[in-house]
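Dear H.,

Thanks for agreeing to be a second pair of eyes. The structure we're designing against is below in token form, covering all 309 positions.
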């Protein structure tokens, strides 16, 4: 049997090298050069074209090469009887926490303001605020959200959390369900979006959500661009309802040349790098998934296709 691999990333060669080291006895076929489809029993993919996976009759499992699976579950021909997994690498959670801490601290310390002052050669101290008096709301309390909570809690921030179902996390005031989101946003100085993209989260952060947030609050999105309504975010920034935003995910990627977010004075743009997967560690996780599939053991980090993650 053989393994199907597909990745549009620039470091696909690094992935292949790491996977071949972790699975030295396996043949890894890179789509579209897959050979006989019936020989493929495991798929490792990211953004493979819709309909392709339906053409492999002997698939034991499908593994996403990232934590997100929205592109996979959106495939109308996805073989839903096959177990589907997402990549939950502790290193990715660490990288996400580092990114979120950096973005939170950047706003908390007023570094954007000081950058503007430097451009004007202006020496002026801004009022300081203690971390314990700054409320950070984490929207999404999965592996990524919990790691962010641990790191931000160590810095002393007042932490709020929101998720689809009930969670209990030390040091976080947790709430769940759609009716509680509005109350949480109204208490947040900084809102961090860490949610999967589903029918329920698409366009979640819109004008109504921004209107609920405290004037002068800040948005950080490091999950999926479709969760934030970009035009309504820009309007909230322009009229001062939001003080700024750090954005790592966009509706269309790469962000188009000339897009107003590129040059907006209150926006910081990064090219979807908040939680990059690492081939060396991820390959070991994926190799274990292959062994589990072939020996009849349950897959780890299964996706519930009904919920989209």
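And this is the sequence the design step returned. I haven't edited it by hand at all.
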């Amino acid at each position: 049997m053989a393994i199907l691999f597909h990745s549009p990333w620039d470091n696909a060669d690094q992935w292949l090298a790491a996977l071949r080291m972790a699975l030295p006895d396996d043949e890894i076929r890179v789509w579209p050069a897959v050979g006989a489809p019936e020989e493929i029993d495991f798929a490792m993919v990211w953004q493979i074209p819709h309909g392709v996976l339906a053409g492999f009759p002997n698939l034991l499992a499908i593994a996403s090469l990232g934590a997100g699976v929205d592109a996979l579950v959106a495939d109308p021909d996805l073989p839903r009887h096959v177990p589907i997994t997402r990549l939950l690498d502790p290193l990715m959670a660490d990288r996400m926490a580092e990114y979120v801490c950096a973005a939170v601290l950047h706003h908390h310390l007023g570094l954007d303001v000081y950058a503007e002052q430097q451009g004007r050669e202006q020496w002026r101290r801004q009022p300081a605020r203690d971390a314990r008096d700054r409320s950070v709301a984490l929207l999404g309390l999965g592996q990524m959200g919990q790691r962010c909570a641990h790191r931000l809690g160590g810095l002393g921030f007042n932490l709020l959390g929101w998720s689809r179902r009930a969670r209990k996390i030390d040091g976080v005031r947790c709430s769940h369900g759609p009716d509680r989101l509005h109350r949480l946003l109204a208490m947040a100085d900084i809102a961090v979006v860490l949610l999967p993209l589903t029918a329920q989260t698409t366009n979640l952060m819109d004008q109504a959500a921004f209107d609920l947030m405290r004037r002068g609050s800040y948005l950080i999105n490091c999950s999926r661009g479709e969760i934030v309504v970009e035009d309504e975010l820009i309007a909230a920034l322009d009229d001062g309802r939001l003080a700024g935003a750090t954005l790592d995910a966009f509706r269309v990627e790469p962000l188009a040349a000339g897009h107003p977010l590129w040059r907006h004075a209150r926006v910081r743009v990064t090219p979807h790098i908040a939680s990059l997967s690492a081939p060396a560690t991820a390959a070991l996780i994926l190799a274990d998934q292959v062994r589990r599939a072939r020996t009849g053991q349950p897959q780890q980090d299964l996706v519930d296709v009904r919920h989209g993650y």
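Two observations from my side: The domain at 91-269 is CATH 3.40.50.720 (Rossmann fold). The mean pLDDT is 96.

Warmly,
E.
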